[in-house]
């Protein structure tokens, strides 16, 4: 499906077909190799499906044999080191998982489904398609969570529940979120996830900000009653980069109109002290019956359930809504600097902010500390702020690059 999706995206099928036909001649146990493509309709979505036919006299093989074959193919095709290593790494990921499950070495593991010629076609075909589309250089691969399906799977060792043991082993310890379902069938194969974990640099639940250039749909063989069995590959161009940090967060909101100010303040303090939120806002509103508030919280997805739990149990709200939010931020750090006021030296905390080019954008002393200094010295907050800003302009001038020894 990955290869079919890339062909649907625009990879030259004829070139790939010729190369894969050459691959079939490199192994003596594959005869009458044929590959073709066709357009199919999967639950209303037009997609490309690959048709693969060949005779394989030896169904299963050892890991070392596949390594030798991949190395031979890479050398015959005169692949560069990066392309060759990618093919070997994908295969190694697959074989390491199989060896771990079977309790043997990668060289000696006896492969069954993973040892068929399909695996070679998947790996080599994928790299050929990526070469044709220029997706191996200057390209960031991003994946959504992986749907692994459900139900039972029958394979060479019997019947197991989905996902297959090798699929789980490959994904173990990787930055990939998996989702069960939405059908009782295998949706993620060991070979497929081996390719993904070696290509994808970032996973996300939501699409990043991009301009969509093209879309490819690769169809699987199975048909399901209520979902389209297709894999979608989107090629896009990132927005013009800014010298700030782009991050994906979650905005959580709830409306309340029947709580006291003390209860609201206590809830905000508890949530802020928890350390898992970035900001909390309270917005006055008028509901259909009386005045109320919108409680708006910025956090990351990992703390979503914790924040929702706090809002429901602290405020008694009946519902909470959330949605993804993209934001640009500056780097920031609070440092302590000495300030001389009326011949006395005081230490004050200052927040320094800079962009990704290490250019200082803002300096801001802590307001509470300015107030305390005003009380101690008898000077106005305005005067103390002038003194502090004068010192900051000498130490951390806005628009200048931060020093390498900045702490």
Could you walk me through the main structural features you see in this protein, from its secondary elements to its overall organization?
This protein has 407 residues and is of the alpha+beta class. It folds into three domains: 2-238, no CATH class; 245-329, Alpha-Beta Plaits; 331-395, Roll (Ubiquitin-like (UB roll)). 35% of the residues lie in helices and 33% in strands. It has helices at 2-9, 13-25, 63-76, 81-102, 117-132, 165-171, 190-199, 261-273, 304-315, 367-377, 381-395; strands spanning 30-42, 45-56, 61-62, 110-111, 142-143, 146-149, 152-155, 158-161, 178-180, 202-203, 210-219, 230-238, 245-256, 277-286, 291-299, 321-329, 331-341, 344-354, 360-365. Strands 14-15-13-16 form a four-stranded antiparallel β-sheet, with helices on one face. A three-stranded antiparallel β-sheet has the order 17-18-19. Strand 14 (277-286) and strand 15 (291-299) form a beta hairpin. Helix 1 (2-9) packs parallel to helix 5 and helix 2 packs antiparallel against helix 5. The longest helix has 22 residues, at 81-102.
